[in-house]
Amino acid sequence: MSTSQLPDPKDRPARLTVGVVGAGRVGPALAASLQLAGHRPVAVSGVSDASRRRAALMLPDVPLLPPAEVLQRADLVLLTVPDDTLPGLVEGLAETGAVRPGQLLVHTSGRYGAKVLDPALRAGALPLALHPAMTFTGTPVDVQRLAGCSFGVTAPEELRMAAEALVIEMGGEPEWIAEERRPLYHAALALGANHLVTLVAQSMELLRSAGVEAPDRMLGPLLGAALDNALRSGDAALTGPVARGDAGTVAAHVSELRKHAPQTVAGYLAMARATADRALAHGLLKPELAEDLLGVLAHGTNPSENGEDR
Question: Which of 203, 285, 262 is nearest to 300 (CA)?
């Protein structure tokens, strides 16, 4: 079918009016994606100046309203607020009668499943937990990044197909997560994505201190290859002085970090210990080389080079 033969989004059936409570980085992007699928954003709430600017950029001409009025106008409501705020928000909306029977209520928290929406369920709402496994910038590029993005989906069994259909409409890939596994699922994503940002930022700072003028250009190909290798091969992709058991090199690293960036030492040692454990477990690090290395990681210096007893 040619592009000219595709149905106009306005003409597709089951169009929903969409509201957003919390105009952070996530909500406007998801609403914009739903708009591309033929649904109609009708209201958004935002408190800060930044959230109002973001809503105006991502959802132009959609009115800014208080949360209760957003729920009054929308068939599908996206609750895109911080994790710690979500339970109180849901309880408040349910207690004040803002929730309507048959209304789709979607939260995007990775930590929570559908049970956090139980107060709204008792009020007749249809609860869905749809968490995009993506980092957001609060700009239109986020809508493009949702194409092929995995979503952690949790919902009552009878709503599972509806939840997965919404994800597909946004261009995403649904991945079913059991209610009791949501915290573990979210911890895994935070461990990978959030800590990666910290590691990269620290690495760039150290390279600048070492005289590298374009640390981003130097790291880009290296980290891209490392990520690709890790996703393809897991622990078999481990390289570097820890995996090789080069205790002297690791001791030199620790010494330099203590001089130039002491705030990075604890993180370096913790990650090096975790790397050594995985390298040992998978047969990459020879046991006879591990003893000196583990001594460095315990004391920050190489016992064999200092003439110390092991």
Answer: 262
Q: Are 279 and 243 in contact (CB under 8 A)?
A: yes
**Residue 64 DSSP label:** B
Distance, CA of 78 to CA of 104 (rounded, Å): 9
**What is the value of pTM for the model shown?**
0.85
| 3-state SS assignment for residue 245 | coil
DSSP 194-241: IHHHHHHHHHHHHHHHTT-S-HHHHHHHHHHHHHHHHHHHGGGG--SH
User: Stretch 54-65: mean pLDDT, rounded?
Assistant: 94
Q: Name the strand (E) or helix (H) holding 41.
A: strand 40-45
CB 91 within 8 A of CB 116: no
Per-residue pLDDT of 260-305, as tens digits, reads: 999 999 999 999 999 999 999 999 999 989 999 999 999 866 555 5
Amino acid code (one letter) for 299? H
Return contacts of 302-310, CB within 8 angstroms, 24+ apart.
302/247, 302/248, 302/251, 304/247, 305/248, 305/251
Assess contact for 37 and 6: CB atoms under 8 A: no
Query: Quick one: pLDDT at residue 304?
Result: 55
The pair phi, psi for residue 103, each rounded to 5°, is -80, 135
Q: What whole-number distance in Å separates Cα of residue 101 and Cα of residue 125?
A: 5
Please give the Cα distance from 26 to 153 (Å, whole number). Answer: 16
